[in-house]
Amino acid sequence: MSLSERIQKDLVDAMRAKDELRLSVLRGMKAAIKHKEVEKIRTLDEVESIQILQTLVKQRKESIEQFSKGNRPELADKETKELAILETYLPASASNAEMNAAIDKAIAETGANSMKQMGAVVKAAKSALEGKSVDGKALSDLVRERLAKLA
Predict the structure, then answer these.
(1) Domain 96-150, what fold?
(2) pLDDT tens digits, residue range 98-131?
(3) Residue ranges of E strands in 15-113
């Protein structure tokens, strides 16, 4: 079952269960995917759909941070619940060990030895972690640390 089919099935289930929060999140996910499909004038593959969901997750995390800073715990709590629902549709996250292994491999492949090659290393590491959910910021930070030690 594709991601879009799963979202549609769960959307119907949420309607039947009258689960307003879940229904709202699923509608948002479906709308974001549909918007991108209209933009590209074709249906999206699984990887593209997952990238859209990762963007939605990132938006929720940023919102939680901003609401927490703004002393709005009720809004931060709502965003946290939405984030939990979104994360159930993402593939398993890459562990730190997997990210470190991918970074080591990327550094060896690119022959990187300074911060100037950081972009190439991040790109190679992301391709090595294909199929896993990867936090780009965390990956960049790890690459920056590793390259700083090499320099």
Answers:
(1) Arc Repressor Mutant, subunit A (1.10.10)
(2) 888 888 888 888 887 778 888 888 888 888 887 7
(3) none
The whole-angstrom separation of Cα 103 and Cα 93 is: 16
User: What pLDDT, on the 0 to 100 scale, is given for residue 29?
Assistant: 96
User: CA dist 88 to 52, 76, 137, Å?
Assistant: 14, 19, 21
pLDDT at 31: 96
In sign, the C-alpha dihedral spanning 55, 57, 59, 61 is negative
pLDDT reported for residue 137: 81
Chain region(s) in the chain for CATH 1.10.1510.10: 3-87
Which parts of the chain have pLDDT scores under 50? none
For the whole model, what pTM was predicted?
A: 0.75
Q: Are 146 and 136 within 8 A, CB to CB?
A: no
CATH superfamily of 3-87: Uncharacterised protein YqeY/AIM41, N-terminal domain (1.10.1510.10)
Residue 50 contacts by C-beta under 8 Å, 6 or more apart in sequence?
Answer: 3, 90, 91, 133
